[in-house]
């Protein structure tokens, strides 16, 4: 996906705009657009959001936008997102051990 996104941007000469600052800003905007869909829903309504085809489509589009900008940011910064996530889970397992485990 990172390669496909990089090729998409390169074909449109967008690389000069894909600075870490710009990508983080775009990521924040897209995450806010995702939040907007859920903003005034009750917990029960939010759990059923994918049952409405129009809303489900909006949610999927915003999730895709958030993921795209996050992957592009990782590409620009040289971060392997899955390795970063794996390391973070390891740290969290040490910080927050499961009940009954040392």
Question: How would you sum up this structure, described in words?
Answer:
It is a single chain. The protein is built from five helices and no strands. By secondary structure, the protein is mainly alpha-helical.
Spell out the blueprint of helices and strands.
Elements: H1 2-11, H2 20-38, H3 43-47, H4 53-77, H5 81-95
Q: What is this structure, in a nutshell?
A:
With 102 residues, the protein is mainly α.
Count every helix, treating DSSP H or I runs of 4 or more residues as helices. 5
Order of helices and strands: HHHHH
Number of strands: 0
Radius of gyration: 17 Å
Class from secondary-structure proportions: mainly alpha
Unreliable runs:
none
Largest sheet data: none
Terminal CA distance: 38 Å
The level of helicity is: over 70%
> What kind of assembly state do the chains in view correspond to?
single chain
What portion of the residues fall into strands of 2 or more residues? under 5%
State the main characteristics.
mainly alpha, 102 residues, flat, 5 helices
